[in-house]
Amino acid sequence: MPSRNPLIYVALWLLLSLLTLFPIYWLFVISVKPAVDLFTTPSLFLDAIYWKNYVNVIGNETLRGYMLNSIIISSCNALLVTTLAFLACYALSRYDLPGKENIFFWTITNRMAPAAVFLLPFFLLFTQVFTLGEWKLYDTKIGMILLYCTFNLPFAIWTLRPTIDGIPKELDEAATVDGASTWQVISEVIFPLARPGLAVTLILTWVFAWNEFLLAATLTSFNARTITTGLSEYVTTTGTEWGAMASIAVITLIPALIIFSVVQRHIVAGLTFGAVKE
Amino acid sequence: MPAQADFWSDAGAKYKGVVLHGVTESTPPSNYIKDVLAPEFEKKTGIKVEIETTSWDQMYDKAIKDMEAKTGLYDMVYIEQDIIYAYLARNFLVDITKSLKDDPSLKAPDFDESHFTTFANYFKNADGDLFGIPMEAFIKVYLYRTDLFNDPKIKEAFKKETGKDLMPAKTHEEYTQIAEFFTKYGKDNGMELWGTTAQAHTGHPASWYEFFESIAPTYGVYNWGIDPSKNYAASVENGGQMNSDKAKAAMKYWLHLRDIAPPESAASTWTEVGTTFAAGRVAQGLVYGENAAWIASDAEKSKVVGNVGVALPPTEPDVLKEVEAGNGYLGYYDGGAFGLPVTSKNKEATLLFLQFIGQDSVQADWAVAAPRITNTATYDDPKVIEMDKKLNGYYTMLKDQGKLFAGAPPFPFHAQVREATAPIFYRILLGEVGPDEGLDQMAAAAEAELTNLGYRK
C-alpha cells in the first residue's frame, strides 16, 4: 500500500523538480563562468559569477537582430498556423467533406519525413522559383513564416481537432437557429470554447518555430537569421565558446517562459479537452 | 578627365550602392574582415560588404549549394586549403589574376600577388594564376609547457627516471618518453596532468586528418600515402605507402599516445586539443597554429599564458633531413582564402574588395588582432614583432620554417577518399581492427574509390 505521508510526496516532487531543472541550472552555471575555468573547474556550484558572457551577448547588435527575427518569425508563424488549423479543423469537424479522414491523415504526412529531405527543394524554391525580379523568398522573414507552416500546420490540425470535435454540434445548431451566420458561429461560439486548445496549439507551434535550426541555417543569411542559427557562430576553429553559447541559450529561454506563463492556465485544460466524449 | 583623388573612391564610384555578400567560417581572421575590413572598405568605396560567419559545416553547405545551384547568393566564399582542388576541378571560381589583367581599371596600385607568402601557391592553378586571396595561414606545431619543462624538480625526476635531460622532443622516441613520464607524474602527484594531447575523435574527420596530416608525414609517409605518379597507388603492392611499414609504425605510435592522453582525447577534434592544452591538462601536444596563438596570449581563455613553448614536431631520425632537402613535409600548412564564385552577380566590385583585403597595408593590424600571416612584409612590422614575443617565436617559426610544412595534397578527390577510408580508420581507433590489418584495408578501400572515380586505370 502506498504511503500516505505527505512529506514523501513533497520529497518526491522536489526530487523530480530538481532532476527536471538540473540541465537549466547547469546551463546557467556554464554561462556565468569564464572560458578559462570551464574545463579546469567543473564544479556543480558557483564560486563567483562572471557576467561578461551576458554583457557581450546583450551588447552584440547582430545577436539582438537575430533574437528579434526569431520573435517575429515564431510569433507570426504560430498565429498563422493556429488560425489556419482552427478553420481547417472546423471544416473537418462540421462538414461531411468527401474523404475527409483521408485529408486529415494526408496532412500529417508532411511531418513523416525528416526536415533534411526538404532542404534542397526549398532552397531551389526560395532562390529560383518564388522570385520577383531581384526579390526572392530566400533570407526573408515572410519566407520562414510560410516555410514553418509546412511542418507546424499538420501538427496543429492534429492537436486541435479533438478540441473542435469535443464542442457539441448542438451549440452551432442553436446559434444558427438564433440567426447566426457561419462566421458568427465560428467567432462567437466555437472560438471562445476552443480557447484552451488554441492556446496549447499556439504555444507548441511557437516553440517548434522558435527552436528550429536546420532549415533556418540553410535558408537565411543576413536579414532573417534566427537566434538558434546565430549560436553556430560560436563553434569556431579556435574553440567552441561555451560560455557565450550558454548565455544565449539562457536568454532564449526567457521569451518562451514568458509565453508559457501567460497561457499556462489554458494548457492543462487544452491538453485534456475533448479527451472524453460526452 | 579629373585626376584620381584616391584609387578606392574612384574605382568604387561605379559600384556605389552595391551590396556584396560573403560566407565564411567563424574564425578570428574572418571576424576581423567582418568587423574591421568590410566597414573600412565601405567607407572608402561606398560598396557595402556583408559577411556571414557560421560553423565549418554550415559554411561549406551554404557555399557549395549556392555555387552548384548557380543562385548567385554569395560574392565571396571561404576556400579552405584542402578544398581548393575540388573547387578548381568543378570550375567554381573566378581566375583573379586573369580578371585583373583583362580589366586593368580594376587593379589596385597597392595590390601585388608577389607580396603573398608561398602559402598563396596553394590557391593557384597549373598556370600560376591566383583563385583565392589568402586570409589565414597557420602551421600545426609542437607546443610544450615551458613551466613544466623548466621546473627543477620535474627536470630532476625526469633525469632520474630516464637518464636524460628534459627538453622538447626531436624524435618520436623522445616524445613518447616525455609523454609517458608526465602522464605518470600527473597520476603519482594527484594532478589533472597528462603527457600529451591527441586529436583522436572516434567518429570525426579531425582524427583522420591528425594521422595523415600530422603523424604519418613525420614517419616519411606523405600525401596520405597515395602516389599519383604510380597510377594513384595507395597500397604497398602497387607502389603506394598507405599501408607501408612506416605508416603502420606511425599508427602504433599515435595509438599509444592516445592511450596515455587525457580521457577527452577520444572525443577531441582540432579545437578540443587546443582547449585541453589551454586548460593546463597536458605537458605537450600537436596543436593547430590558430589555436597556438590564443593559447599563448589570451589570458581570458588560457591558463598557460606565458608558459607555452613552440617547436617543430618530432620526427623519425632521417625524416627531417629528407624534408629539409625538399623531399617531404613535417606537418600541415593550414589556412584559407577568399574566392570569387563564377556565379557572383557583382564580380568587379568583389575583385576590388578582395584586393583591399590582400594589400600589405591592412595586414599588420590583422595579424595582431587575429594571429595569421599571409604577406611577407607583415613579418617585419614592429607590431607583429612585438606579438611574436608573446607567441614565443611562433611567427618566426612560420617565417623561417613554414617551408617545411605543406598544405593538403592537390587531390580533387579529397573528400571521397577520406570518406571511403574513414570508417575503417575509426574501427582502428575503437580497437575493432588491428592497426596493420586496418591500414591494409584502408589502402584497398582508397584504391577502390579511386578506381570508381576513374583515377586508377
Mean residue pLDDT of chain A: 88
What fraction, in percent, of the residue positions of chain B are helical?
Answer: 40-55%
Q: Radius of gyration of chain A from the CA trace?
A: 23 Å
What is the terminal separation of chain A in angstroms? Answer: 34 Å
Instruction: Please report the distance between the alpha carbons of the first and last residues of chain B.
Output: 61 Å
Helix count of chain A equals: 12
How many helix segments of chain B? Answer: 19
Helix content of chain A: over 70%
Strand portion of chain B, in percent?
Answer: 5-15%
Instruction: Characterize the overall form of chain B.
Output: globular
Strand order of the largest sheet of chain A: 1-2
Greatest contact pair?
Answer: A-B, 28 and 38 residues
Number of DSSP E strands of chain A: 4
Main sheet: strands, sense, barrel of chain B: 5 strands, mixed
Q: Spatial order of the strands in the main sheet of chain B?
A: 2-1-3-8-4
Structural class of chain B: alpha/beta
Radius of gyration of chain B: 23 Å
Element order, helices and strands of chain A? HHHHHHEEHHHHHEEH
Order of helices and strands of chain B: HEHEHEHHEEHHHHHHEHEHEHHHHHH
- The quaternary structure here is heterodimer
Biggest sheet descriptor of chain A = 2 strands, antiparallel
